[in-house]
Specification:
Blueprint: H1 10-20, E1 24-28, H2 35-49, E2 60-63, H3 67-84, E3 90-93, H4 99-107, E4 112-115, H5 117-124, H6 130-133, E5 138-141, H7 144-147, H8 151-166, E6 171-176, H9 182-189, E7 196-200, E8 207-211, H10 225-240, E9 243-247, H11 251-264, E10 272-275, H12 281-292, E11 298-301, E12 314-320, H13 326-333, E13 344-349, H14 355-367, H15 381-393, E14 397-398, H16 399-407, H17 417-429, H18 431-434, E15 444-445, E16 450-452, H19 456-464, E17 474-479, E18 484-489, H20 490-494, E19 501-504, E20 507-515, E21 518-523, H21 542-554, H22 563-567, H23 569-578, E22 586-594, E23 597-602, H24 608-625, E24 631-634, E25 639-643, H25 651-657, H26 663-670, H27 673-688, E26 694-695, E27 698-699, H28 702-719, H29 724-737, H30 740-751, E28 754-760, H31 768-776, H32 781-794
Parallel strand pairs: 1-6, 1-7, 2-4, 2-5, 3-4, 5-6, 8-13, 9-11, 9-12, 10-11, 12-13, 17-21, 22-28
Antiparallel strand pairs: 14-16, 15-16, 17-18, 19-20, 20-21, 22-23, 23-25, 24-25, 26-27
Helix pairs in contact: 1-2, 5-8, 10-11, 14-21, 15-17, 15-27, 24-26, 27-28, 27-29
């Protein structure tokens, strides 16, 4: 390092020292400051100082959340080892690794092995797993903030707990970017270590947030509309940079922006590429290599490129639309200017005018380092029973020995003996309803108390279905003439007819036919559908919500330094003139009567997911006061209840409707919690092995998965209501889908706010984008544009402000 003229950072030196003194710990540092080398070199330095501690075999196990990270990391590690002159070998083991390499690794492990959480569990499921880890000194968990708060994070916790129990001197180190709850993050990763340390880099990444302003303020903004216009403004940014990453939030948005940029600047053909998780892995690999080598001018990507790989030539990042969270925004910003002390430039492209308030909010959050927590998941019994079958498969375990190991993990510290006994009963007998079905008797108890998997078919199916990522059934997309393009969700293809055109991997394709789980297509041109992937919608974080409310309130008297709020002044003035801009201690409700009917708008600024629940609850409460039915629409800023009957409520009734009293009881009455739990149960059933997703290399389609899990759900509701997996489905609905803690906090805030109830005769700047979202559900894009223009013209006439 020093030979190359590089001086180590103090956090790296501290990590090397603590590691050699037997500590486990967690390193927190910005992107591009050498977090990887803080742990990797610690192991090399310790080996060179104490070679007698180390034996031939696996010394360092490196867990990474993404396959694409592993290849680049392994290359960088091997280069460093070769330069030092050690004979260590670094290898990767994941779903892309050749079977011959895996077989060789099983006989003789390399010195350093990079794995995903799933690959590690597959190793634990191998007979004779003991000899893989006998010489292991350290496990490093990379990008821990990405795994924390997910079921993949729980997989890591369980694997670490098991390996630590078998190898008492094992050191565990996490590497993470900044999150709000760093102490808890370390506690989850290393709950039992006697000697542990959190090392936080003093160095901070400098981030320049540059908004891309439209040529004029649209005082009646609508989502998605500005994107097309602003592609022209993004072209010069790309041309002036060495290499640019253009981040979108969804795969469909990335497909759209790839086309927009090519239309705006046809010379980009061959110079820009498209990267998301539904594109064929070989194409993605080529793009990553071309980006690293500086052969691409720009890549339009989703979160598939959020993490890790050091793309040195990237000097600019463009974020299209809301990033929905502060941590995600900072992570993406850090992908540019990857060297220490280099400025990270990120351009924010609003998809509608109101998103410029978000730029001001993000600047404030970055300045004050207010970053979201990643709340850990607990008592995920589906992951636990899968893990127990894995351990039973790789040589077996005794229930009494493994119980304290599981209880020592953060995720299962609250597990009771009764719950543990239920888990053992479930894997051996299939629970109360599985007793009569042979396929649920996965694990066999032996006379000596060992629990093992004996049946070959169960072993094979378990290995094929291991993991916790349950995607909606994906269809392969192939050319009739041969050649694989990528994947789209089954539900999207099911809505198309033969001859319909759609866009994938930047190409216009015509659907010819669907056979089994493959869509056959040919190249085409012209107008086409953009696939919408169900997993695409990100929730707005509570931190960003808070700053948004703050900035909107201050927009009435914009600070001269906040260009975004100054630019939005005509929109803010229009909102104030016809309704109101809520202060931080106010809650705005608008009642608007148009020739279409009656609209009630509310603006909690809590994100689409929370608003979905709030809208159902408010509609339910109003229906208890007056007989009325509603349709609903929402965005990240607020929601609309629409009816063709008058919504006749006064201020005292409004207070009652917005009350925090009996909140969760009435939420349950207002939504179909059972139906939501049933949908959640599908994933739980797949993870726990009650329903098999992959059968002999073929993936079951959505309908059969949903039907199988639906039948089991109904049987459990009726005959085994205390089933832990059923209980978990309801818990996940409340904690994840209904976001119960955040919902309660929102109503608490509204309770302490002054309610401002305004009547308007036309759509306001805050209500208009929500109205457009409701139209989007029922109209094609061409009809939608003309309908919106008519709405804008029929609303209040007012001058537009030019920049």
């Amino acid at each position: 390092m020093q030979q190359k003229g590089n001086t180590p950072f103090s956090f790296q030196e501290k990590a090397w020292k603590k590691y050699s003194n037997g500590y486990s710990g967690m390193v927190v540092a910005p992107t591009g400051f050498g977090k990887t080398f803080s742990i990797f070199l610690a192991v090399l330095i310790d080996f060179m100082n104490n070679p007698s501690r180390y034996q031939k075999g696996l010394k360092l196990l490196w867990i990474t959340p993404l396959r694409s990270l592993a290849k680049d990391l392994a290359r960088a590690m091997q280069e460093a080892i070769d330069e030092i002159g050690l004979d260590w070998v670094v290898e990767v083991r994941n779903g892309d690794t050749d079977i011959k390499i895996k077989q060789r690794q099983s006989r003789q492990m390399p010195d350093v092995l990079l794995v995903t959480p799933e690959s590690l569990h597959l190793l634990l499921a191998q007979k004779g797993r003991q000899h893989f880890f006998n010489t292991l000194q350290c496990i490093a968990v990379d990008e821990w903030h990405e795994l924390l708060g997910t079921k993949r994070g729980v997989m890591v916790e369980l694997a670490l707990g098991f390996l630590k129990y078998q190898h008492q001197n094992l050191r565990i180190w996490g590497i993470t970017a900044t999150i709000g709850n760093l102490d808890e993050a370390m506690e989850v990763l290393i709950p039992t270590a006697q000697k542990k340390v959190k090392i936080v880099a003093r160095e901070k990444k400098k981030i320049a947030i540059i908004p891309v302003f439209p040529t004029e303020v649209e005082v009646l903004p609508w989502a998605g509309h500005l994107g097309g216009k602003l592609a022209e403004e993004v072209v010069p940014i790309i041309l002036e940079s060495k290499s640019t990453l253009v981040f979108t939030n969804t795969r469909s948005q990335s497909e759209m922006w790839y086309q927009l940029l090519l239309e705006a600047h046809p010379d980009f053909a061959g110079q820009i590429a498209l990267h998301h998780s539904s594109i064929d892995s070989q194409i993605r690999q080529w793009i990553e290599e071309a980006l690293s080598e500086g052969r691409l001018k720009a890549v339009v990507a989703t979160s598939s490129l959020d993490l890790g790989v050091d793309f040195k030539p990237v000097d600019t990042v463009v974020q299209v639309g809301s990033s929905k969270g502060v941590a995600r925004f900072m992570q993406r910003a850090g992908r540019s200017g990857h060297s220490p002390h280099e400025l990270s430039k990120i351009y924010f492209v609003p998809t509608h005018s109101l998103e410029l308030i978000e730029v001001a909010a993000l600047k404030e959050a970055v300045k004050t380092q207010t970053i979201e927590n990643r709340d850990p998941m607990v008592l995920t019994f589906d992951v636990l029973v899968q893990f127990l079958v894995t351990i039973a498969l790789g040589g077996g375990f005794k229930a009494k020995d493994l119980y304290p190991v599981i209880k020592n993990t953060f995720a299962f510290q609250e597990i009771t003996e009764e719950e543990w006994d239920w888990c053992i009963f479930f894997i051996t007998q299939g629970g109360a309803i599985g007793k009569n079905y042979e396929e649920f008797h996965k694990v066999t108890p032996k006379e000596d108390g060992m629990l093992v998997v004996e049946k070959r078919r169960i072993a094979m199916l378990h290995r094929m279905n291991m993991g916790v990522i349950v995607s909606d059934a994906m269809m392969r997309v192939k050319f009739l003439s041969g050649g694989y393009i990528g994947m789209v969700e089954e539900y999207f293809i099911s809505r198309l007819h033969s001859g319909d055109k759609f866009v994938l991997a930047g190409r216009v394709l015509e659907l010819i036919r669907v056979k089994e789980m493959t869509a056959y297509v040919r190249s085409s041109s012209g107008r086409a559908f953009t696939p919408s992937w169900l997993g695409g919608r990100l929730p707005l974080s509570s931190n960003l919500s808070q700053f948004l409310r703050q900035k909107l309130a201050s927009a009435r008297h914009p600070d001269s330094r906040e260009k975004e709020l100054q630019f939005l002044h005509p929109l803010v003035a229009r909102q104030n003139e016809h309704s109101h801009i809520p202060a931080e201690d106010e809650f705005l409700v608008e009642s608007i009567h148009t020739k279409e009917g009656y609209h009630l708008f509310m603006y909690p600024f809590e994100g689409r997911l929370v608003h979905e629940v709030m809208a159902s609850l408010i509609a339910y409460r109003i229906s208890l006061l007056i007989p009325i039915s509603f349709s609903m629409a929402m965005n990240d800023y607020g929601f609309e209840l629409f009816s063709d009957s008058e919504i006749a409520i006064d201020e005292s009734q409004l207070k009652k409707i917005l009350s925090r009293e009996h909140l969760m009881e009435e939420v349950i009455s207002s939504i179909n919690a059972t139906e939501m739990a049933k949908r959640k149960f599908r994933d739980i059933a797949v993870i726990s092995g009650m329903v098999v997703q992959n059968l002999h290399g073929k993936q079951q389609n959505n309908k059969s998965l949903q039907a199988s899990s639906g039948i089991i759900f109904q049987v459990l509701e009726e005959h085994d209501p205390q089933n832990l997996l059923l209980r978990q489905a309801y818990a996940e609905v409340f904690n994840q889908q209904l976001e119960e803690p955040r919902l309660v906090a929102a109503f608490e805030r509204i309770h302490h706010s002054k309610i401002i109830y305004k009547f308007a005769t036309g759509f306001t700047p805050l209500s208009f984008p929500i109205k457009v979202d409701s139209l989007r559900q029922s109209l094609s894009s061409e009809d939608l544009t003309s309908r919106i223009q008519r709405l804008q013209q029929s609303n209040w006439k007012s001058p537009r402000r030019k920049r």
